[in-house]
Amino acid sequence: MTICVHARGADIPTLGLGTSPLTGQACRDVVAHALHVGYRHFDTSSRSGAEGDVGHAIRHSDVPRDEVFVTTKVWREELRDGALQRSAQASLERLGLDRIDLLLVHWPNDDIPLAETMRALASARSQGLARHVGVANFPAEMFLRASELCSAPIVANQCEFHPLLDQSAVLAAVRSTGAAFISFSPLGRGNQIQSVALSAIAQRHGKTPSQVLLRWNVQQAQVCAIPRSSNPGRIAENFAVFDFVLSDAEMQALTAMARPDGRQVNPPFSPHWDGTTAHAAVPAAAQV
């Protein structure tokens, strides 16, 4: 049985697999293995070059299509009315599937009116290109404005989230609408999330630090997580987070790890984030 977050008419599997930057046979093999392990939520984007491989693996698996939730995204330069719908159509064709389960605006773009983008996003849904629509990398105020401007329900906001980064403002905004918060980089980048508290919690539960970090994510209300890995053992390990529960004290100890420079994905075109962050460009491959 797949555990889901219920968000404005969408049932989004609580734990998914991020596929970027994998492409080709490596991507197909990873998705196939993840399906075998039990994953039913896969995240890709028009920018990644992996949509065709993700779709191929799903089409050639023994898992019924109705049990798999596929998310893809429209790049920030394609957010005009007309361009967004064409991008969604192209994504659907590359995936080779009957539908996109969740179509996201990948990053906001201040050069394109948000009202126009939300109109186009709702249009993509009404045309049957996607079952559900949402956004990614939207800070709190922008997310609430987008929700008001879109005639279709915004069911999710996908943002960076891990214990080093305080996302309380955007989390509150997302929850206030009944949408889901989908965590990318839930394990951070480059093994930066380390602490005595994290190690002690992992040892106490007989789990790895990564499993504890993922549990911290999905144990929070309305939060899904999409870790990514190309290692078959790690993919299976990351999925084994539903057989233990963190105490309130353990959750608080991890949340207390947040720091002002905790944001790790912050390209030059980022919006004005909630709270205080350090601005540092990241490689294109890391711009989930």
Descriptive keywords:
288 residues, alpha/beta, TIM Barrel, eight-stranded parallel sheet
Structural summary, described in words:
The chain is of the alpha/beta class and 288 residues long. The chain has one domain: Alpha-Beta Barrel (TIM Barrel). Helices cover 36% and strands 16% of the residues. It contains ten helices and ten strands. The strands form two sheets. The chain has an eight-stranded parallel beta sheet. Strand 7, helix 5 and strand 8 form a beta-alpha-beta unit. Helix 1 packs parallel to helix 9 and helix 5 runs parallel beside helix 6. The radius of gyration is 18 Å and the shape is globular. 49% of the residues are buried. The C terminus is likely disordered.
Indicate the CATH topology.
TIM Barrel
Spatial strand arrangement across the major sheet: 3-4-5-6-7-8-9-10
How many beta strands in the DSSP annotation? Answer: 10
Overall structural class, as computed from helix and strand content, comes to alpha/beta
Q: What characterizes the major β-sheet?
A: 8 strands, parallel
Total domains: 1
Mean pLDDT: 94
Secondary-structure element string: EEEHEHEHEHEHEHEHHEHH
Identify the overall geometry: globular
Radius of gyration: 18 Å
Strand content: 15-25%
Which helices and strands occur, and which strands form pairs?
Elements: E1 4-7, E2 10-13, E3 17-18, H1 24-37, E4 41-43, H2 51-59, E5 69-74, H3 83-95, E6 100-105, H4 114-126, E7 130-136, H5 140-149, E8 154-160, H6 168-177, E9 180-184, H7 196-205, H8 209-218, E10 223-225, H9 232-239, H10 248-255
Parallel strand pairs: 3-4, 4-5, 5-6, 6-7, 7-8, 8-9, 9-10
Antiparallel strand pairs: 1-2
Helix pairs in contact: 1-2, 1-9, 2-3, 3-4, 4-5, 5-6, 7-8
